[in-house]
Every structure is written in structure tokens, then in C-alpha cells.
């Protein structure tokens, strides 16, 4: 079967336009309408399809064809961030706008572009009469923007997907990410006693206690991280939020901070959490004067650059572009980290630049969308065979 790439480009543009027009903003991360749209297309293509939910309004689509090994799972998140300032947008965020060979709209790059590619791939597999061996699974998920437990984490924990190779739709400009940092999110709350600011000694200042706690964390834990690096990835810490006090004339009774730790593949999130826990205990603050809460925790991973899936991508990218595939160092985190301990191949790949995600006037090149589709179709043919393409 000959593939007319001009037709493919229009098909991809139409699908992505549909996806952009269906809001899936977090919060609240409502993906039900978008999942209904995708599920209808997967079912029409002959895939065994279900929409599964752990917690409303976050829905996820699982669509599969074939059975057995290898099981190739395509995963992409379909929730987006919100619009910080509507006046910064030059186009309607919920209407795909074509301009200068790019398609603009909220989620165009992160990651509805990859979702459009995955839907097109399913329909193209059907047009080719299916696959020769193994299983292909497409999962469109929510809860990624919150790094939450109701999307990919739920699909893995419930056994709905058990891939040998996981291909995560990501903003990699069609290059490859096979290593990723883990995540540790914690919340620390310092407790005190409110009093009049004119008599601070009769109270217990929670903000001052938080300063002491953070100072110890900085000297005992965080200061050492700048020296740690692994394959271009840094071990980092960011104090992202701090809240405390009511008025300047009141001694504050509570203060809360939230901290983001990015972990190298060799670091374990449980051990990293325990380091924070021990450092806080060593401050000498009364044990009931503060609390530590684990919000999120997943390990990173470092995959092989020579597995079956990676090698297929390397061959196809070389053939498509004339250039060797590049392995990128990620800044953010994708859902493949939930499979970090499963001993499978995890590959992040998709159209769009990382700088476009979460930015006003988000867009991606239409040619990149096309290349992503053609590369991944050839990878599918390489790994499991398309009935009338190989």
C-alpha cells in the first residue's frame, strides 16, 4: 500500500485540531470528553477499547490489537495546563490555527500532537489489515500534569498494560530519551503558637521554625547535590511554594513549604525521602512542632541505547532524516517512570519542542507531526510487522 504523505499530513492536522478543540485543562483535569472522542475512533478501527477511571473526572483510554509478545504500548497524556494569561495568546487556545507551517493551540505540542499521531497510527494499522505478531496497545491518559496516581500509574498498577516496550509520546522533536530523573515531592509544615506581634515572646513563630528547618536541610542535604551528576543529568532541589502567617502584626502559627527533588537514575526516592526525614530530626526542633509529608515519589531510569525498540527507532530515524538519532537529556518527567523497576524498554519520542510545553502560543511544526507518524509507523512494522507493508 502506497502512503500519500500529503493526505497523511491533512489527516494528522484534522485529528489534532479536534483534540485541541476539546478542553482537558488541569485543574480539574477532566479528560472524559476527549477520551470519548478517542475511544470512538479506536473502536471504529477495530481495536478492543475501554475507557477506565480510578477517580472522576480523570478518564483514560486503553485500545489494543493482537496478543502475545512483544507487547508494544504507546502512551501519551491528554491533559493540559491551564491558560495563565489569555491576553498573551495571539490565537484562540482551543481552536487549532495554522500559521507559518505550524499548528497553534493549547496542548499542540504537550502532548496532543503525540496523541494525534497515536490515533492516526491505530487507524493506519487497521488500513493495513492489522499486525503480524505480538500486541499493540494505545493508552491516552489523564493526571500527568499533576504527576498523579489516576492515569498511567493506575493502568500499570491494575495490570491493564504490561508492555515489553513502552513508547511515551513526549516533546523530543522526534529524537529519543531513554533515561530520566525520578521525582520526590514533599511538603513540610512547621507548627507554632499565634500571639500578638507586640509580644512575640508569648507565641511560637512557625516561620522562624521553618527557617531553621530549611537551613538544616540546605546544609545537611541540599548543598551536596550540586556535586552530583550522571550522564548530563543533575540532582536538583527547588523550594516551589511557601505559605505562612495571617498578618504582619500576628505571630504565625503555621508555615508550609513544598519541595521538588529531581533524582538521578542511581538515586532511590525512598532513600532520598529518608535523608530529608533524618535531617529534620537532627535539627533539634520538637518532634511535634513540624510534619513531613510525601506527596509524590517515583524512581528514575536509565535504559539501554541498544534494545530492540531503540534500535528500531535508530534505523528508522536515520532512514527518514539522513541523520543519526540523538539521545536527549530531559528536563521534565514523563509517565514512563512508573515502569522504572519493571525491566522494560522505555522510550520517550514525539513531535514538538520541550520549550513549547506550558507556554503561551504553544505550537508545533506540521512537518514534525508528519515525521513522527511516519517514523513510528515504520517502527511498528519493524517490531511486529504490518500485514501489507513489510
Write down the Rg.
Answer: 23 Å
Number of strands: 19
Beta content: 25-35%
User: How are the strands of the largest sheet arranged?
Assistant: 1-2-6-3-7-18
The percentage helix is 25-40%
Structural class: alpha+beta
Number of helices: 8
Q: What is the average of the pLDDT values?
A: 95
Largest sheet: 6 strands, mixed
What is the end-to-end distance?
Answer: 10 Å
- The oligomeric state of the chains shown is single chain
C-alpha geometry: elongated
Q: What order do the SSEs take from the amino end to the carboxyl end, as H and E?
A: HHEEEEEHEHEEEEHEEEEEHEEHEEH
Spans where pLDDT lies below 50 across 5 or more residues: none
Describe the protein's topology:
Layout: H1 5-20, H2 32-44, E1 48-55, E2 58-66, E3 71-77, E4 97-99, E5 102-104, H3 108-127, E6 135-141, H4 152-157, E7 165-168, E8 179-180, E9 182-191, E10 195-196, H5 206-220, E11 229-230, E12 233-234, E13 236-244, E14 250-251, E15 254-263, H6 269-281, E16 290-298, E17 301-302, H7 308-321, E18 345-348, E19 363-365, H8 366-383
Parallel strand pairs: 3-6, 3-7, 7-18
Antiparallel strand pairs: 1-2, 2-6, 4-5, 5-19, 8-17, 9-15, 9-16, 10-14, 11-12, 13-15
Helix pairs in contact: 1-3, 1-8, 3-8, 7-8
Short account of what is shown:
With 390 residues, this protein is α+β, with helices and mostly antiparallel strands.
Amino acid at each position: 500500500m502506497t502512503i500519500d504523505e500529503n493526505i497523511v499530513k491533512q489527516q494528522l492536522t484534522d485529528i489534532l485540531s479536534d483534540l485541541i478543540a476539546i478542553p482537558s485543562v488541569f485543574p480539574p483535569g477532566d479528560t472524559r470528553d476527549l477520551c470519548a472522542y478517542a475511544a470512538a475512533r479506536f473502536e471504529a478501527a477495530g481495536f478492543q477499547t475501554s475507557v477506565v477511571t480510578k477517580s472522576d473526572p480523570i478518564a483514560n483510554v486503553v485500545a489494543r490489537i493482537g496478543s502475545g509478545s512483544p507487547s508494544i504500548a504507546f502512551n501519551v497524556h491528554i491533559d493540559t495546563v491551564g491558560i495563565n494569561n489569555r491576553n498573551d495568546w495571539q490565537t484562540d487556545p482551543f481552536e487549532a490555527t495554522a500559521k507559518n507551517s505550524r499548528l497553534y493551540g493549547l496542548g499542540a505540542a504537550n502532548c496532543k500532537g503525540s496523541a494525534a499521531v497515536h490515533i492516526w497510527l491505530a487507524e493506519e494499522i487497521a488500513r493495513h489489515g492489522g499486525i503480524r505478531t505480538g500486541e499493540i496497545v494505545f493508552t491516552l491518559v489523564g493526571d500527568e500534569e499533576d504527576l498523579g496516581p489516576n492515569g498511567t500509574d493506575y493502568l500499570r498498577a491494575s495490570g491493564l498494560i504490561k508492555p515489553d516496550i513502552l513508547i511515551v509520546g513526549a516533546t523530543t522533536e522526534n529524537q529519543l530519551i531513554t533515561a530520566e530523573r525520578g521525582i520526590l515531592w514533599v511538603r513540610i509544615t512547621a507548627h507554632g503558637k499565634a500571639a500578638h506581634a507586640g509580644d512575640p515572646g508569648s507565641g511560637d513563630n512557625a516561620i522562624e521554625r521553618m527557617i531553621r528547618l530549611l537551613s538544616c536541610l540546605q546544609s545537611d542535604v541540599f548543598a551536596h547535590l550540586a556535586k552530583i551528576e550522571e550522564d548530563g543529568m543533575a540532582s536538583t532541589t527547588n523550594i516551589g511554594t511557601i505559605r505562612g502567617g495571617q498578618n504582619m502584626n500576628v505571630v504565625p502559627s503555621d508555615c508550609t513549604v513544598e519541595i521538588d527533588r529531581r533524582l538521578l537514575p542511581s538515586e532511590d526516592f525512598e532513600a532520598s525521602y529518608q535523608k530529608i526525614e533524618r535531617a529534620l530530626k537532627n535539627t533539634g526542633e520538637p518532634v511535634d512542632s513540624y510534619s513531613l509529608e510525601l506527596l509524590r515519589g517515583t524512581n528514575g531510569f536509565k535504559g539501554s541505547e541498544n534494545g530492540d525498540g531503540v534500535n528500531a527507532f535508530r534505523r528508522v530515524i536515520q532512514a527518514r532524516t539522513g541523520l543519526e538519532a540523538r539521545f536527549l537529556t530531559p528536563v521534565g518527567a514523563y509517565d514512563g517512570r512508573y515502569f522504572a523497576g519493571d525491566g522494560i524498554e522505555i522510550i520517550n519520542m514525539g513531535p514538538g519542542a520541550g520549550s513549547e510545553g506550558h507556554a503561551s502560543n504553544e505550537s508545533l511544526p506540521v512537518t514534525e507531526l508528519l515525521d513522527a507518524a511516519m517514523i513510528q509507523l515504520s517502527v511498528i512494522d519493524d517490531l511486529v510487522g504490518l500485514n501489507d507493508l513489510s
